[in-house]
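Q: Given only this backbone (97 positions), what sequence would you predict?
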């Protein structure tokens, strides 16, 4: 399904109540959860298995070494995967590396 207004990604992010500090380059919805950015598949699997009371997961920005951002010759950056809820509250769900 293509989201109406797909050319206005900020509107899509706002529609799913993603906190601005968590914005990244990709937004998806998986089994009712919003996935924002380069979230590792292991954390999405964990989310779907545990089914916490959150709106979704996010990796803000585009950290080097996150899925799809591997860069030969560059050291991986440390980054966190955050949960967020509809009130905009966030919490660390996992940290890498």
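A: Predicted residues:
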């Amino acid at each position: 399904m293509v989201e109406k207004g797909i050319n206005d990604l900020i509107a899509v992010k706002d529609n799913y109540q993603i906190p601005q500090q968590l914005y990244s380059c990709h937004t998806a919805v998986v089994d009712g959860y919003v996935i924002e950015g380069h979230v590792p598949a292991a954390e999405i699997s964990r989310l779907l298995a545990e089914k916490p009371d959150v709106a979704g997961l996010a990796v803000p920005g585009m950290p080097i070494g996150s899925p799809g951002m591997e860069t030969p010759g560059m050291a991986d950056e440390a980054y966190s995967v955050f949960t967020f809820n509809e009130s905009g509250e966030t919490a660390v769900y996992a940290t890498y590396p």
